[in-house]
Design goal:
- By secondary structure, the protein is of the alpha+beta class.
- 38% of the residues lie in helices and 22% in strands.
- It contains 6 helices and 7 strands, in the order H-H-H-H-E-E-E-E-H-E-H-E-E.
- Strands 1, 2, 3, 4, 5, 6 and 7 form a 7-stranded antiparallel beta sheet that branches.
- A hairpin with a 5-residue loop joins strand 1 and strand 2.
Length: 198
């Protein structure tokens, strides 16, 4: 068990390493190899030469990211098709799907506007990765400094309105994503409430 503060802190070291490893999507068997390497390294008896094999890590990460992103993209495409078919949904040229939840009656922002919004973002499996509601504070930003999907979608809203934006990865975080919370190639769903245009 984790009884002392020191034990919990050491456990946190492992969590941090795990977060760095998340980009690799390791199988249980591969994770065992990593554990094996940790103990070999602690005993100073590495089974392979790090100078030789270390430089190959980046290439492997890239290959895995591309593979994972294309699988995630395919899942996203199916979701986008379904969302586009919902009543009241509009698909724009960039592939974004815009669905008004509540019509706003106030000012409509431009790309150069500063906006104040409440929002929550989820992956297509329902996992919430970000929420201004949870932070208890609306977010404020220049519309031309966020993901393209937001720049486009929020301009279609008026103050007081609430909308759902479904963003293909190409106009969100692309193949790189934002690990560990947003996998590469992810289609994202945002619920946005436009509170103010500055």
């Amino acid at each position: 068990g984790l009884n002392t503060d020191e034990e919990k802190t050491i456990y946190a070291v492992g969590l941090l390493m795990g977060r760095q490893l998340s980009a690799l999507s390791l199988s249980p068997a591969e994770l065992e190899i990593v554990k094996h390497a940790l103990s070999d390294s602690a005993n100073n008896k590495p089974a392979v030469n790090l100078d030789e094999w270390g430089p190959k890590i980046d290439g492997m990460v890239q290959i895995r990211q591309v593979k994972l992103a294309s699988k995630t993209k395919d899942e996203g495409k199916a979701f986008l098709e379904k969302a586009a078919g919902e009543s009241g949904a509009r698909r724009t040229q960039t592939g974004m799907i815009f669905k008004e939840i509540t019509a706003g009656t106030g000012a409509q922002p431009m790309a150069s506007s500063n906006v104040k919004v409440n929002y929550k973002g989820t992956l297509i499996n329902g996992t919430e990765f970000d929420s201004s509601y949870k932070r208890g504070q609306p977010a404020e930003f220049p519309l031309n400094q966020v993901i393209p999907c937001w720049t486009e979608g929020v301009q279609m809203m008026k103050v007081g309105g609430k909308a759902q934006l479904v963003c293909p990865s190409e106009i969100a975080y692309g193949d790189a994503g934002r690990p560990p919370t947003i996998p590469g190639g992810s289609t994202l769903i945002f619920e946005v409430e436009l509170l103010e245009v500055k």
